[in-house]
Amino acid sequence: MMVIFNPVAGRRRAAYLWRVLDILVESGIRVSVAETQYAGHATELARMAALSNAPMVVAAGGDGTIAEVTNGLIGSDTALGVIPLGTANVLAYEYQLPRTARAIAAALAYRRTTKLWPGLATLPHENHVFVQMFGVGFDGAVVHGINSSVKRALGKGAYVLQSLWQSMRYRFPVVRLTIDGQDHEACSVIISKGRLYGGNYILAPRAVPSMPGFQVILFKNPGMMNALLAGAALPLGLTSRCPGVEIRAASEIHFSTNDRSLFSQTDGDRLATTPSWVTNAAMPIELITG
Predict the structure, then answer these.
(1) pLDDT tens digits, one per residue of 138-189
(2) Which fold has domain 122-281?
(3) Where in the chain is the domain with CATH 2.60.200.40?
(4) Following DSSP, what letter does each residue of the chain receive, concatenated?
(5) pLDDT at 59 (0 to 100)
(6) Which pLDDT score is estimated for 123?
(7) Where in the chain is the domain with CATH 3.40.50.10330?
């Protein structure tokens, strides 16, 4: 079993990883661990494992690490395992993956699977796979503003503080996009593969992550108060009822803006630029669920 570990997770989460691995080794399972050294390294490691016909690769990290590993596995028969070590662990909540060390080890040992159908963002020089969400505008600005040290110290609290800060300084430029041939404008956009956002908070209740397609959440009203209202409504599952918020089903999204003041993120990781297209990955992968 190959485990790809993002060491940025920190010492506490690394200790949790080793508890899982100790249980697997005690059960007679051979485990190898590869630490990522740079952005995209997890994709390279996963792709090499898939090319060698590895039956399973395990992503130990947050949603961004899971997305990188997924990118390396698409098109292969190699299954994806997850040891959730991130701040929000949205995918783990989405699929109700096990949370305790012993339950995670048991799931990886038994290898029962379900489908995970990722999204694909087309950038000028590469394609970027995402497993849970893609954001442009205010959502992206919050992720770009996060300091990694503060994130490790405060966890989700870092996002709350950064959201408050961005609500006061972000200028809310217009995001222009086309959803399945229909033109739209918004001040912030979240394209969601799953129902959840920011942890176990429901944002897109009709999303089905095991199937192709997306739920596009359009935030049409700019300004600090609207941003704070949407954030406050999220833990209650009421963001979709906020003024100026629309949710549309989609299979293909085109962004027509080149505004450099826009920010983008996928699965909690920064993107250097806004992609031109967001589409479905060519095929699903098998996700180990327990």
Answers:
(1) 999 999 999 888 887 888 888 999 999 999 999 999 999 999 999 999 999 9
(2) Tumour Suppressor Smad4 (2.60.200)
(3) 122-281
(4) -EEEE-GGG-HHHHHHHHHHHHHHHHTT---EEEE--STTHHHHHHHHHHHTT-SEEEEEE-HHHHHHHHHHHTTSS-EEEEEE-SSS-HHHHHTT---SHHHHHHHHHH--EEEE--EEEE-SS-EEEESSEEEEEHHHHHHHH--HHHHHHHTHHHHHHHHHHHHHH---PPEEEEETTEEEEESEEEEESSSEETTTEES-TT--TTSS-EEEEEE---SHHHHHHHHHHGGGT-GGGSTTEEEEEES-EEE----TT--EEETTEEESS--SEEEE-SS-EEEE--
(5) 97
(6) 87
(7) 2-118
Question: Which CATH architecture does the domain made up of 2-118 adopt?
Answer: 3-Layer(aba) Sandwich (3.40)
Q: Which of 30, 96, 28, 92 is nearest to 61 (CA)?
A: 92
Query: Locate tokens 């990955």: which residue?
Result: 281
Cα–Cα distance for residue pair 118/192, rounded to 1 Å: 10
- Give the residues of the chain that fall short of pLDDT 50: none
